[in-house]
Every structure is written in structure tokens, then in C-alpha cells.
Predict the structure of Probable queuosine precursor transporter.
Amino acid sequence: MQSHPEPRYARRPKTYFDLLVAAYCVLLILSNIGATKGVAFGPIITDGGFFLFPLAYVLGDVVTEVYGFRAARRAIVTSFCAGAFASVCFWIVIALPAAEFYENQTAFETVLGPVPRIVAGSLAGFLVGQLLNAWIMGLIKRATEGRHLWARLIGSTLVGEFADTLIFCLVAAPILGITQAGDFVNYLLVGYVYKCLIEVVLLPVTYPTIRWFKRHEPTYPRAEAVAAGS
């Protein structure tokens, strides 16, 4: 009986980078959809994506710390493209003629209609903020010779999140109905302070996460992986 040769495929290197990029994209797209809903906790004004978007910065810190600025830039651009594609898809779906039996066109447009505009602001903020975050984190890592992980995690977030939040709020505020100067400042400061606090609160999670990836990523230098908690 004649045996057939096994089919050939491209070899896939063992790395966790692609999984982190996929998570990056999912968080960005979901947070953009959630951001179409204005949310108020008493006098505190925010949006529905408030609990999702900060996690993207935690992932960004992991990618930058483990894989470096170039890899982080690739992940950021990939997520940017995924978010833009999602926005175009929503625009196309809204523009498609609704079937006679479909009764939710107006509701669908109301909920997802602002997404393309909000995504424009979110993507611009995301691109600028994340690139600043990754760049500054790399600068601090070189300046401290890899020590004081907490300093580069917090320092990079303070700069990146401010640029990100400012750009996003300038675009999203009028769409969400925030037109008063006081409400805008509230929206901006609450978002910025909250995101920075999340970074601090999640440090006990970020530290072991980075340590785990350093020790299990085959391409990471072994000597540095042993001291991954620095």
C-alpha cells in the first residue's frame, strides 16, 4: 500500500506574543463599543468602557517589558487596525437596508451609530498614548538598567494615559452629550485618575504576570528571567 507524504505547513515559533496581541485587539474593540454609553455614579461621569480600557495599558506594559518597544509598536498598530476595521464594519452594517421584519433598526443605529466617531477618537488617543507609554517605559528601563519596574510602569502610564484620555475626551464628550465645561473637566479628570489608579492597584497582578512571561517566553534572556521581578 502506497503511503502518502504528510502535508507541509509553515513552522510556528513558540511564543506568547500573538496571544497578547489578540487580547489587545479584543479589549480595544470591546471598550470602544462600551464607550458609546455614558455612565454616571452620582457626580462622577464616565463611560461604559471604563473597566475595560485600562487593561489594555496593563497588557501594553507586559508586551513592552517582555518584548521591547518594537514589538509593542507592532502590537499597538495591529490593534489600531483591528479597531478601525471594526468601526468600518459597524458603519456598513448600519447602512445595509433592514429587512421588513426587523424592528430594531433605530435602536441598532442609536447604540452603534456613534461607534465610528468614538472609535476615531479612541484610536487616535490609543495610538498616541500607547506609543508614548511604550517609549517612556523603554527609556526608564534603560536609565535604571532594568531595575525599579514599578517606576517605569507608573511613570509611563502617567504620561501615556493623559495623552490618551485628553484626545479621546475631546472627541467623545460632545457625542455623549457632555457640553458643559465643568462636566468635561469632570469626565477628563475622572477618566485619567481612574486609569492611573487602576495601574497602581493592579501592580500586584502586573508584577507576577510579567515575571511569568519572562520565565516562560523561550526567547527571553535566561539571566534576566531569573531576576524578572526587578
